[in-house]
Amino acid sequence: MLSARQTLIREELEVGTGAAIGMAVDGSKTRTGLRIWFADLEERHGPVAELRPHGLKGYAVTLRFGAFAGEVVRLIAGAVPEDVHLARALIASIDNSVEIEIQGQDTADWKITSGDFRMTAIVRNLPRDPEIALTQVSRDTIVPMMAAMAELIGYDIIDEVDQGEPEYEGAELVSTVRRRERNPRNRLLCIRLHGEICVCCGVDPRATYGPAGSIIEVHHLEPLSLRKEPRPYDPAFDLVPLCPNCHRAVHTRRPEPWSLDELRELMADPMGKAAL
Questions:
Q1: How many domains does the chain have?
Q2: Structure pTM?
Q3: Domain-located, residue 166
Q4: What is the tens place of the pLDDT at every residue in 3-33?
Q5: Where does the HNH domain start and stop, copy by copy (predicted)?
Q6: Does residue 240 carry a pLDDT above 50?
């Protein structure tokens, strides 16, 4: 069953983590499992998630590190607080019905300091349909676990740099904001916490466009370039989902975008009649 659905699992993971995924069927135990890792690191040099049936209607996911993962573990140990916060938030977003155990650590403030790190998630009472069950455990458990590792390692999607004149001083910071908005883990966590309905106009792209509706965008409520004082970045509170139209409309005012309340007022009174 697992071997026949590797494509499904790989697609979910690559979208959620922003990294290429490698995997192999593991028949070394009584119940066949699947090993999953980041393709560029190879199985021995990075984190590996082992997916295996558990009980009658469940799966166990065990995350550990390969035998030669010392360099990657050192890289993770030096991750900046912002990346650590997002990684922990991704794990915390897993449904409470999933039993998570982090060997020797509290699940709220875990950290990776050695290759002995191990995280286990037990998912029970899944739907009887094998494909639905595997899709659910992949999307809701394996994806956030591997996405947390991708964030700590530092996989990023880098936007092309605009070649035109900067619109104002600090254009380099604006580029950083755009890159963070494109971070697939930011988008993943924002959607897991807030859903895929635009918080401004209420449109649900999936309900409108069906399979083509995965177009919700992620918006920083307070652009990083405009912060007067540094403060911890929290995707759970600093990001909201917007449809492409509302997101573009918010950014038509520069350097400070329209607030969501201001945009709602404009939408309610587009001709400015209320001011007359």
A1: 2
A2: 0.78
A3: no
A4: 778 898 999 899 888 889 999 998 787 788 9
A5: 198-253
A6: yes
